[in-house]
Amino acid sequence: MTMGSEQEAPSRGEFTGLSAIVTGGASGIGLATANLLADRGAAVAVLDLRVDGLPERLARFAVDVADDDSVTAGVAAAADRLGGIDIVVNNAGIGAQGTVADNDLDEWRRVFEINVFGIVRVTRAALPYLRKSEAASVVNTCSIAATAGIPQRALYSASKGAVLSLTQAMAADHIAEGIRVNCVTPGTADTPWVGRLLDSAPDPAAERAALNARQPHGRLVSADEVAAGIVYLASPLSGSNTATVLPVDGGMQNLRLRPR
Ligand code: NAD
Fold first, then answer.
1. Its family (predicted)?
2. 171 C-alpha to center of ligand 1: Å?
3. Measured from the CA of 70, which atom of ligand 1 is nearest?
4. From the CB of 164, is ligand 1 less than 6 Å away?
């Protein structure tokens, strides 16, 4: 590039030349991940229910991961726009509170359609593109809830338990063709989702303070911190990682601390 040219300097991130799709990429952990991937040089497409208001540099496709046709069309359109798919971040997910007795079977099906079958749909649609990639990587957003036995979270926990076992089974199935599959298990992360839960409490500030105090490091995990874990696992820098379960949780899953 000549001095004084108005062309942008070429990106030199480790994702230069790679293409990524991020489900649930319009908010929270997914948006932080999409932005970080783009910062590091990836061509990124966000697949989400609503995709208005996203930064210009992110391609965007309105996709419902609970709908077969929507996923098939959205993944194909994203691959067409990006010129292939090297990286899939399966991040779209919804929460659910209650015991087995509290959630009826329709609610169980609704959450599994998104949190579990959404990953199956998107991965199935992306596999033909991943098989053509020299740097194929799938990263699933799991949760501490997969193994923690959190009260009042039976349905959500079971869905994330399925994400954990799916990650490891997929890693085994696709290692021979060079496709890595990993997941992150975030602790409670400061995203719009958690913000909405806090706002619905009688005293949101007190609720936030109590939630912070329950974390080993005294605060919520940030969306950027979870994104950094996802981006590491998506990156060629983690080329020897597959079936990895990466906690981003302030130590919650591995430390044995008394509550503060
Ligand atoms: P968020 O609500 O801020 O973002 C989730 C995004 O997923 C939204 O943009 C939403 O529109 C999208 N989405 C929901 N249903 C969808 C569907 N059917 N099709 C396409 N997109 C859909 O939430 P977040 O906190 O950023 O959560 C992201 C992921 O992280 C989820 O899988 C969640 O289970 C997981 N997680 C979150 C936390 C936390 O404390 N925030 C902790 C552990 C794991």
1. Belongs to the short-chain dehydrogenases/reductases (SDR) family.
2. 23
3. 19
4. no
CA 38 from chain centre, in angstroms, equals 15
Q: Which CATH superfamily is domain 19-186+223-247 in?
A: NAD(P)-binding Rossmann-like Domain (3.40.50.720)
- Interatomic CA distance for residues 104 and 86, integer angstroms: 38
| Ligand 1 binding pocket includes 93 (Cβ within 6 Å) | yes
Q: Where are the domains of the chain?
A: 19-186+223-247, 189-220
Which among 50, 58, 68, 141 is the best mutation to test ligand 1's pocket, defined by most ligand atoms within 8 Å of the CB? 141
ipTM over 0.95: yes
* Tens of pLDDT, residues 99-129: 999 999 999 999 999 999 999 999 999 999 9
Q: Which residues are annotated as catalytic?
A: 156
Read off the pTM.
0.95
